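Bumping with the actual sequence this time:
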Amino acid sequence: MGICFNKKKGGALKINIQNWNIEDSAFWDAEGKKTAFRNLWISIPALLQSFSIWIMWGMIIVQMKKLGFTLGMPHETLEDLKVFNELLWTIPAIAGLSGATLRIPNSFLIAIGGGRNVVFLSTVLLLIPAVGAGIALQDIHTPYHVFAVLAVLSGFGGGNFASSMSNISFFFPKRMQGTALGLNAGLGNLGVSVMQFLIPAVITAGFFGACAGAGLPLVETDGTKAAGTLVYLQNAGWIWVLFLVLSAIASFFGMNNLKMATPELGDYAGEFFRIVLLVFFGLVAAGTGSYLQAELKWNMWLVLPITIILTLLLMKILSPRQIKSSLDRQFAIFKNKHNWIMTILYVMTFGSFIGYSASFPKLIQDVFGYLPGGQVNPNAPNPMTWAFLG
């Protein structure tokens, strides 16, 4: 059986691979294996950082309270403090809703935009919430709506999981897809734990110099740290910037688009436009859902179907004809009962994992951090230390 190589002169692999017959063992051994694993090893750190940035607000809000952040609202009465604490809870909740919503358009991105293009652009987009957090966390009077917007944008990370898994599945023969997807998902999900250990370490000092902002003093005792100790909470955002840039460069120059996964390849401007457009539809729906729940206090079980339906309607109605034809073919999955059964199972498994991970640090603080009279509990466990248990 002949082998068709996808190489330019000089031995460099093309970005767009036209022939990808990985079920042919000769092709796999000669060319496919090396290319597939190169794409996998670039995909994993990109996905790891996606999870880190998506879930980082669960750690950040704990320190925001200890540093005296006001969210731009008064703190004069017990009712003010209650409202403030409720708003803190909504920040990681908004990020969670946004990430879940963005998985809908991300599920379709590989077919219309190309795997390499999607991973590159989605990694670049994560720079927005990372840099935004680095700036916003320098001022304790940054208003709530700024953090709410950044939380919505952090949802880029949650959405990336869907496109990342879809992309990697095309690179490996069926006999190896379980291993490849397990590595991509398992090591990618490790980003939650990496973030939970890394953020407490990097906020202890001004590692990034004066350009990253000055430290903020603790307004209450934090474990062994006395009130007045400087904390560089903005580093929780800045720490990801260099790694994101490196991942973006690696994906741009080291990953590939597969013709079998993306039938219409070659028009880079069009591919990037289609990616951005579908992600924008997801952001609009996620922002709408977040507003309904956080601002208007609508019931969660009403907000969720509205957000999902709005996302699908925006994609279905407002997409250009070229995108719509591809979406119509893929929308057939909604008629498959197994799709809905797996959705319910996934909500119970992954949903509980990511929900507990995002909420556990704040839960520790609220349950154990204060005595009945409102005083700081000197014997309370440090949420930043025990967050990994979530």
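The tokens above came from a reply further down the thread. Residues 18-389 form a domain with the Growth Hormone; Chain: A; fold (CATH 1.20.1250.20).
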